[in-house]
Amino acid sequence: xxxxxxxxxxxxxxxxxxxxxxxxxxxxxxxxxxxxxxxxxxxxxxxxxxxxxxxxxxxxxxxxxxxxxxxxxxxxxxxxxxxxxxxxxxxxxxxxxxxxxxxxxxxxxxxxxxxxxxxxxxxx
Length: 124
Fold this sequence. Notes:
Layout: H1 14-21, E1 40-44, E2 57-61, H2 62-71, H3 74-80, H4 84-89, H5 91-100, H6 115-123
Antiparallel strand pairs: 1-2
């Protein structure tokens, strides 16, 4: 069009800041975007029951968060899975991640506790 100039974006431009704010956060576990319509929650890297009340948290898809707690007790999370890298390297979480990465970013399904975790819970 005649008379229209393209707009240059700068870091201190309010519209540029607003546009950048609309970028969906990335789930650090599955590395997929977390759109506004997706279920998500904060995961305490060290569980609150194990002293992580004021510790670090990460925003995860709800299905990713549920997958962690369906497989591991609070004690096990605190002891050996208290950071994202350790979670990603865990064989059970690795299998889950391979599966969920093929799903839409806003995918959610009910997550049940694993048989091993249910059995361990009954023993205690």
